[in-house]
Design brief:
CATH topology of the largest domain: Threonyl-tRNA Synthetase, Chain A, domain 2
Number of strands: 12
Strand content: 25-35%
Number of helices: 4
Shape: elongated
Helix content: 10-25%
Strand order of the largest sheet: 2-3-7-6-5-8
């Protein structure tokens, strides 16, 4: 049963965000629809980001993934029908077009937020990514559409250039020394010894 013990799940999306398919083994099942795998390519909902969707296939039968969440440290995949059991081998297929749209908008949002935060001193007070739009809230002293449009234009100029995006891990102490690493007004990086850093090189 989910929750009785912690299952170590390998989050493959952290190692390779371009991975579209993988094989996995069902580690636990709750209420016939909530599936924990030994490894997953599906990102769980959290931090203002929606979860991935896709499907698991077992012996030609398809189980559509309608929600992915993280509960008590475990990544749970909600499927649209019962039929999976502990020990089953499944082939996971990511809805790649949706994921790639979210990746692009997420990177764009960070570029815009970085430019605005660095240029005005404002911090991010809230955010929400969707498939077709992104919302960011900032601690600006006053709303000024001209200022926002100025930074939108600066971001769009950067998008015309070929700028690398890379990730790496750093000890928490070292990571927190990076200027501008914390842009959230009321949130700090998780209390972990190693932090995963995603860098838009030369920008954020």
């Amino acid at each position: 049963m989910l929750g009785e013990e912690t299952i170590m799940v390998q989050a493959l999306y952290l190692m390779d965000s371009y991975l579209r398919e993988c094989d996995a083994t069902v580690a636990s099942v709750k209420d016939e629809r909530y599936i924990v795998l030994d490894q997953t390519i599906f990102y769980p909902k959290g931090g203002g980001q929606p979860c991935d969707t896709g499907r698991m296939v077992k012996d030609g039968q398809t189980f559509n993934i309608v929600f992915v969440g993280k509960f008590s440290g475990e990544i749970s995949h909600e499927v649209d029908q019962p039929g999976l059991g502990v020990g089953d081998r499944v082939h996971c297929i990511l809805d790649w077009e949706r994921r790639y749209r979210l990746m692009r908008s997420h990177t764009a949002a960070h570029v815009f937020a970085s430019l605005l935060c660095n240029g005005t001193g404002a911090l991010i007070t809230g955010n929400q990514l969707e498939e077709d739009q992104v919302r960011f809230d900032f601690s600006l002293e006053r709303f000024d559409r001209d200022v926002l449009e100025e930074y939108v234009a600066k971001a769009n100029e950067l998008f015309k250039r070929e700028i690398a995006v890379r990730w790496y891990e750093l000890p928490r102490e070292e990571a927190l020394k990076i200027p501008g690493i914390v842009k959230m007004a009321e949130a700090f990086p998780p209390d972990l010894p190693q932090l995963r850093i995603v860098e838009v090189v030369g920008v954020d």
